[in-house]
Each structure stands twice: as C-alpha cells, then as structure tokens.
Write the structure tokens for this entry.
Amino acid sequence: MIRTSMPKAIEIGTSIAPGTRVDIQKAAIESWRNCGFHVVSFNEPDEIDSLEASFPGVRFVPQPRNGNALVGKPLIFISDILRHLASPGAGIGGIINSDIILSPEGGLGEFLREQAVNSFVYGPRLDVHSADESNGTMD
C-alpha cells in the first residue's frame, strides 16, 4: 500500500498522579514528546487545577467518573481513555503509565506510525532503578 500522507500525530493518553513522583512523571512526559507524541492526561476535575502548572503542554481531559467507589482511589477507567482515543477523527493513540520513560533512540514514533494503522501494538514495561539503566526486570 502506498501512503500519500502521514497519519496525524500520535496521541498518548495517561493519568498523571498528583503529588507523587512528580519528577519521574515530568521526565517520562518529556521523553514522550521527544518521540514526537502529543500528551493528554485524563483526571478528575479537582486534580487538574493542581497539575496544569507543573505539566505545561499536556492537554487535560476532565473525567466525570472514576474508580474511587471500587478501589478507594480516583483511578480513571481505561474504557474512558479508549473511548476518547477512538473518537471520530482520531488518529493513532496509545495508553501509557505516567512514570514510563521512553527512549527516543530506535525511531519508536516512526515505527508506531507504520505498525499501528488499523492494528493494536503493545509492549512490556521494564522496571529499572534509574532512567539511565538498560537492564531491569520485565513486568
């Protein structure tokens, strides 16, 4: 198939956790931008006010519901994130934990633009003690 135009920018959905591990979340989000991704965070409305100043350039989408009644935390439902990513006119989208740092090496953005069209692409998490480590434990 010959593609006549590149797909829209890849939108990465997450839910930034307020007040915890802010530095690692900032580093993670910066790494996503370095891969060429647009970042959107799904949070309950009360959290957004405290997060916007610390995370400029992130688009926040207020969520009217969360999992607080089920798990005691305002966790966002994956189905709500997926609904947003699959909305009419959306391009390629993904979900990632707010503390995962991506390496810009290896052309991840270009790879996903090619492989994720009409497909589902996923990968494991590698838990490391510091961001400069290349060996860790697969989650």
